[in-house]
């Protein structure tokens, strides 16, 4: 993560969600009902694993609830049908909230047409979660080495991993770097992921007058249904975290237009926040796979990887870590996700494809 105006210890809450980028109808179409049922249980297990570590360590877990917001009337109808589908086919209850009820009971959002609520999503503090994982690992006798970025991987009968300060040789290699995997380094993930920048702003604390004007009554995590999504929530100190897409390339990541665009959208979404300013902002990479699904896989020469979380990595990584461990000790994880990542066609031109996708996304979002 690259931060501006904030120390790393102040990084606010990110999201632990119960669903990925694809709808359940799309999952059933791709994998079938039985495999999707397994995926559904895996999604919930991932959240439970994060909750379990939260019982042992402080991860900054906040109010439960993930609100998916319809940015058009057509999308509210889709969300209603999605909620019915989940109840009928997976015995999974999702609450439907119309526009008036949402504005009265959650927040007076000016640009949505209703919402659905998953009860088992929540916010966490990412640095606290990282520390919790580190403490858990160290309690099991694992040594953690920092400031040792990998510069080269050589694989034959064993794997030799070279860093700036030394090298390691092992018979099994785990790659768990997701969007931060070096694109030019030869590896099992080369040309198989698209690192995508996301930008986040955190405002100054809302005054009581501002909070009442916006009718902010919830600290639950929120994300809209746009193709180019925005996600946000009210933090424990009454700041608003607001995120969305960033620059196409890292060279332009710090351009202030991306933070300003987020602030503009925030002010247009809520009453009474016209004078609100940004206190902190940062950007970071997420990993997108060609099929928009995460993959947990073992290659023929004992490289193990988990990646492609498409922005839902807080819960998926907890699950993937457990399944990777099972693979390493020779267990069959029997998951629809246990397949090799597909290659991006014409991989050197992925950024051109991303630009075209963003243009199409803007058009789709404009027409609802």
TrEMBL record:
Residue spans crossing the bilayer: none
Segments forming domain FAD dependent oxidoreductase: 43-327
Signal peptide: none
Sorted UniProt keywords: Oxidoreductase
InterPro entries reported for this sequence: FAD-dep_OxRdtase (IPR006076), FAD/NAD-bd_sf (IPR036188)
Protein known as: FAD-binding oxidoreductase
Source species of the chain: Psychrosphaera algicola
Organism phylogeny: Bacteria, Pseudomonadati, Pseudomonadota, Gammaproteobacteria, Alteromonadales
